[in-house]
Design goal:
By secondary structure, the chain is mostly helical. The chain has 13 helices and no strands.
């Protein structure tokens, strides 16, 4: 309720009156809940430890490679932590007969910062659009006023995350890119090959996470210096100190599943199977259902084992 998806009365009120219960919806809710739990326990928690350790290093301990490894870990941590929580909320809603707004749509597959904000924390960005941006005039005002509106919205978005100047700077940072993409830079960006647009958006988002994660501006400045090789780490900590088998697996799996839409893969597999004769189709369908059940049970068991054997690690978005 605190972190999202942010629910609105006009979406929930009809469901309170006509909420139904169907076995297949309950099953889908269970799958979503287990998937969200696995995101949190198996990926977010695995990369959280090196991210926290690296961001805690002083300026003379932080090398170029370690800094990039740390921001890669945090980039996956915040996505899988928050989207995992949202999946659990959506899944629980389905189990009780409610349909909640989806909160994420593979934001790290975005092709621009505009695209990123259509995919990241959707319930928050649409709330700010409807209750701040549009009342300020939206797109119906002059270009200058429109750009000021965008900056104002993202100033408030940064402040929403916490009363800290680093959050405000993060909001202004994203506001700057959104204004930039409304200039001639936007059409030029759209003409670039898809991999280059993706690289631009991902790099911009990752650099923004430095402001979001740092507690103070001096911390952020020395981290940026290390990222671009301007630091002088007299006592640089070796990268291998933070790299373990579990972290490597979490980074690899996280990189794939943060940009690969699983529902699209399932749809393509179903389309391919639909071209087969009836009997092989039935066999493959039954096999797919069996594999899905085993996978859900395995993820639930592994998540429970990690939860029982690990230390307490709450959802990081609870503090914003």
């Amino acid at each position: 309720m605190v972190a999202g998806p942010i629910l609105r009365w006009n979406a929930i009120a009809p469901q309170l009156e006509r909420r139904g219960f169907r076995r297949e919806v309950f099953a889908e809710g269970l799958r979503r809940f287990v998937g969200g739990l696995a995101k949190k326990m198996l990926i977010a928690n695995a990369v959280a430890l090196p991210a926290d350790q690296i961001f805690a290093l002083s300026a003379d301990e932080l090398s170029l490679g370690t800094a990039w490894f740390g921001i890669a870990c945090y980039t996956l941590q915040i996505y899988f932590d928050f989207s995992g929580y949202s999946d659990m909320a959506v899944g629980l809603g389905k189990m009780f007969g409610f349909e909640f707004l989806e909160n994420f749509n593979f934001p790290y597959a975005a092709q621009s910062i505009r695209d990123f904000w259509r995919r990241w924390h959707i319930s928050l960005s649409t709330w700010f659009r409807d209750y701040v941006y549009i009342p300020l005039g939206g797109n119906r005002v002059s270009e200058t006023r429109n750009r000021l509106n965008l900056v104002a919205v993202f100033f408030l978005c940064g402040l929403w995350h916490g009363a800290s100047w680093t959050f405000v700077a993060w909001g202004f940072y994203h506001g700057f890119f959104l204004v930039l993409e409304r200039t001639g830079f936007g059409p030029a960006l759209d003409k670039l090959p898809r991999p280059l647009r993706h690289a631009y958006a991902l790099l911009a988002v990752m650099l923004g996470w430095v402001l979001f994660r740092a507690n103070t501006f001096p911390e952020a400045s020395h981290y940026f210096a290390a990222l671009f090789g301007f630091g002088q780490p007299a006592h640089a900590q070796p990268l291998h100190r933070y790299v373990g088998t579990e972290v490597i697996w979490a980074l690899g799996v996280g990189a794939v599943f943060s940009a690969l839409p699983w529902h699209t893969v399932k749809a393509l597999a179903g389309k391919w199977a639909g071209k087969l004769p009836a009997q092989p189709q039935a066999v493959l369908a039954n096999l797919g259902h069996a594999i899905e059940i085993v996978l859900v049970l395995a993820l639930l068991l592994l998540s429970a084992l990690w939860l029982a054997g690990g230390t307490y690690n709450p959802f990081i978005y609870f503090r914003f």
